[in-house]
Structures are given as C-alpha cells and as structure tokens.
Design a protein that fits this description.
The protein is an alpha/beta fold. It contains 13 helices and 13 strands.
C-alpha cells in the first residue's frame, strides 16, 4: 500500500502539470492510467485509500492559487474535491470485472467529474480533464462531443493504457494500445475536417481593462479608483475613435466588479457609468454589484443604453461557495471568523435567454460561470450569437488561476463555435476566435482595452445539444455496471465448485498482485 500511495502522490502532481500554465498535456493519460493502476487489485474497503491520495495530490496542487484567499478555503475546497477520487477508487472495483472494463472505468471517471462539479454547495469544475486539452490535437473534437465528451475520450485513453500495462504477453497488450491509438486518431479527425458553421453577421466590440491599483489584488479597497480607471480608459477609446485610430465599437464591455457598489444606490457610481455611456455613445455592458437587501447581494452584467438607460441584465449563475456566499452559514459562520467577512450571501441567477446588446444576442458568463456548462449552454440554445466573459479574478492575479481560466474561455470558444470576448479587471482581457486562437489581448496589470470585429453565429453545436446528457448517461452506465457486476458476483457464488466445473474467466483484477 505504501508504494501505491507514493505512485498516486506522483500521479496527482503529474495531472496538475497537464494544466496551464505548465501545459505538459501528454502527461494526462498516463496520470489517469496510474490512478487506475494504484487502485486495482484491491477490495473496495481499501481501494479508496490510494484514490484519496491521488485526489489530494491533484486538487491541493491544482487549486494552490486559492491560498491567497486563505488556508482554510484552499484546503477546505481541495479536500472536499479530494473525497470524490476516493469514492471513484472504491466504485471502480466491481466495474473492473466486466467485459470492456476500460470503457466502464472511463465512464466512471466522467460520472465522478459530473458529480463533483456540482455537489456539494455547487461543486467546483476546476480540473476536468478536458480543461487541459486546449491546444492539443484532440481539441478540435470539442464542437462535436463537448467538454464532457472530451473528458470521456481522455479518460478512456488512460484506462486503455492501464489495461495494456496489466496484461501479460505482447499480443494481449497490443489490443488496448491499438484501440487507444484508434480513439486518439478518431478524436483528431477535426484537424483535417474541422467543425464549420455559416456566419450570420458581425459586430464590433471593445473590452476595457481598467487595472487595479497597488499590487493588483484588492478590489474593494480601491473600488472608486477602479471605476474611475475604467472610465478613463473608455474615454481614451472614444478619443481614438474620434481621431480615427480605431473603428467605433457597437458596444463596450466592462468587467465584473468594475463597479463594486450599487450604482442605483450610489450617485457617484451611477454618474461614472453615465459618463462612460455618454462618452462612447454606444451601449455599455457593465459588471455591477447590486444590493439585494440586508442579507443578500447580486453580481450582474447590466446593459446601459445611451438612450433608454439601464436595461437587460444577467445575474451570475454560480457564486463561489465560501468566497461569495457561505453555505450552511448556521454551521460554519459563527465558528470561523474568516468566513464572517462575507457578511451577505450572493444569490445565483437563473436566466436562460441571452442579453440583447446593440442588436446582438450575447451569452454572458461572470467569472467562474465560464467553467460550468449549464448557463452558457442555456443561453446558446436560446439563440446566443456571441459569448462575453466578465471577470474579476484580481485577487488571483499573481497565480496560475489567470492562465487556467483564460484556457477555459478558449475551450468555450471552440466548443460553442463562437467568438468569446473576455473583459477582465486586470487580466487577461482578450478576444478569442471560434478555433480557440487569441485574436487580440493586452498584458495583465495594465490599463488598456481591446477591440475587434467579431463574427456572429446562431448554429448550435452538437456539443451544446448533447452536453447536459452525456454526464448523466455516464452516471447511468455506472449504476448499470454495478448491477451487472452484482449479478455476475451472485452467479459466481451460486455456481457449483466440482472438479469438472468450467474454470472462471480471469479478470483484469485477477492478473494484478495485491
């Protein structure tokens, strides 16, 4: 068990290295294979142990950037996510005895991801296998299979490698390796036959990055200056338009927390927004914090029109647990002083229609929303033509979170076949094309803006259509696999054990020493 746990520890770190900013993506299938190797040959009562070690090694290192919020949130979230890898290690035991075991195990991995991304307290999608695949040969399959489907492909590559390692004889080992090569080739077909859709129009968008004073991490301490800097950069954009240095945008985007107090309650904040709208004379989609009473607050993207004023709005779907709201406050709030700093709970939104901004249907995502499937899928299914990500990850500006979230935004561009405009308070602000390439961006921790003419699309990719169902299907397959394994176990127990009885077929587990 000690050797298994040491290998699990190393494999978890290797999986982290597959993600930005290191991007050693070729390690990913080997890390997944190592997980299934170190948990193989063990009964359920013990298989969870190396699974837990793997999960802790992976999640604690991947989410290291959370330590800037505090040790308790970082370790608390990491260890909560870790538990699911222990569950997977135990749950995989009966599935190994089924025919085509690598496929069952890959489905189990995706089922585990689907659950931990949403539960408990909204879960945390960071660390999905597909989020490490941007820029790899298989990324082109995203419009066809989605982020969940690509995770399934990558997990299957790992389980096939594990199967090849445990088989005896060259010929037996060759079978899963050939299948793995076939899966990899099939997932790489879009390199030569990429997804395509007809462009239905175009619009010109500008995204403002106003920057954060000081070391760039404390938004609340400088909220008025931050709004003033976004206003200043918007003024510079308007001046560049007047002088002919850039084309006039159809609308402008300010990031999340560019206004950190309610402009409908704070006259100065409302005046700053009105000045920005009057200066550019086009609609402004601004990241706004809205009071929701003495106990609640809303994080919204609101469209301010130069003629009609405040109008269409999107509310963040997925507030961050223990960061923007305290789940089970009755249990934790009175005992941990650090959590009491979150005095009001942020309320999540439910909007499924895209925003109407300057004649364009905009699917909005605020910060961590971009890592969840549901909000974007819903808006795109209802006609969204362009994706906008408004984010304020300023407290993480010196960490790998910045690169990881921008990579997820690139994945969404490929998966949805949409241009994605990212407005970040101090980085990374940029425009991403439907193939995942970065059209334009500005350096982090600078006061600047990006602008570009972007294409509009209304075709809904297969990924968006099947996305909500694939994770559920994997959960159903795991349940079915357990039933089949239970039936197989009962038949084995009830079978007569005489000299002439037919020998039981050896399984993958039978060939691995405990």
């Amino acid at each position: 068990m000690r050797t298994r746990c040491l290998v699990a520890l190393a494999a978890g770190v290797a999986l982290t290295l597959s993600f930005p900013p290191t991007d050693v993506s070729w390690l990913l299938p080997f890390a997944v294979a190592a997980f299934f190797l170190v948990t193989d040959g063990l009964p359920m009562r013990r298989a969870w142990i190396p699974g837990l070690v793997f999960g802790a090694s992976f999640q604690v290192t991947l989410l290291w950037w959370l330590h800037v919020v505090g040790t308790v949130p970082w370790l608390g979230l990491s260890l909560t996510q870790t538990l699911w890898y222990g569950v997977l290690g135990a749950a995989a035991v009966p599935l190994r005895r089924l025919p085509l075991a690598p496929a069952w195990l890959a489905a189990a991995w995706v089922a585990m991801e689907s659950v931990r991304c949403t539960w408990p307290a909204g879960g945390m999608p960071w660390g999905r296998l597909s989020y490490a695949a941007v820029g790899t040969p298989v990324a082109g399959s995203l419009p066809f299979v989605g982020s969940t489907g690509l995770s399934l492909v990558l997990a299957l590559l790992g389980t096939l490698l594990a199967s090849a390692y445990t088989r005896r004889g060259r010929r037996a080992r060759a079978v899963p390796l050939v299948v793995a090569l076939g899966v990899l080739a099939l997932a790489s077909v879009p390199l030569v036959a990429p997804y395509s859709a007809a462009e239905i129009g175009h619009t010109r968008v500008a995204a403002i990055q106003g920057n954060v004073p000081g070391n760039g991490t404390d938004v609340l301490a400088h909220f008025r200056q931050i709004t003033a800097q976004h206003l200043h950069e918007t003024d510079r954009l308007a001046a560049d338009v007047r002088e002919g240095r850039t084309a006039e945008p159809d609308f402008v985007v300010w990031p999340e927390n560019s206004t950190a107090v309610d402009p409908f309650e704070d006259q100065q904040m409302r005046a700053d927004i009105q000045d920005a709208v009057d200066t550019v004379d086009v609609p402004l989609l601004a990241g706004v914090v809205i009071d929701g009473g003495p106990r609640h607050v809303l994080n919204q993207g609101i469209v301010f029109d130069p003629v009609t004023g405040a109008g269409d709005r999107y509310t963040k779907w997925h507030p961050v647990p223990f960061g923007e709201y305290i789940p089970w406050r009755w249990l934790f709030g009175s005992h941990l002083a650090q959590l009491n700093q979150v005095s009001r709970d942020m309320v999540g939104g439910t909007r499924v229609e895209p925003l109407h901004v300057a004649g364009t249907l905009v699917a909005d995502a605020i910060c961590f929303d971009v890592a969840y499937d549901d909000g974007l899928y819903a808006q795109l299914s209802h006609g969204g033509q362009l994706v906008v990500v408004q984010t304020s990850n300023a407290m993480f500006i010196h960490t790998s979170q910045i690169d990881q979230q921008f990579a997820i935004s690139r994945l969404r561009a490929i998966e949805t076949h949409r241009y994605v405009v990212v407005a970040a308070i101090n980085g990374i602000t940029g425009v991403i094309a439907p193939d995942g390439s970065v059209v334009t961006s500005v350096p982090v921790r600078t006061e600047s803006y990006v602008d570009a003419t972007v294409g509009l699309y209304d075709a809904v990719t297969p990924a968006v259509r099947i996305g909500p169902w694939l994770g559920r299907a994997c959960l159903g397959l795991v349940a079915l696999g357990w039933l089949l394994a239970l039936g197989q176990y009962r038949r084995t127990r009830m079978a007569p054990t005489g000299r002439g009885d037919e020998a039981a077929t050896p399984t993958l587990t039978d060939r691995i020493p405990a």
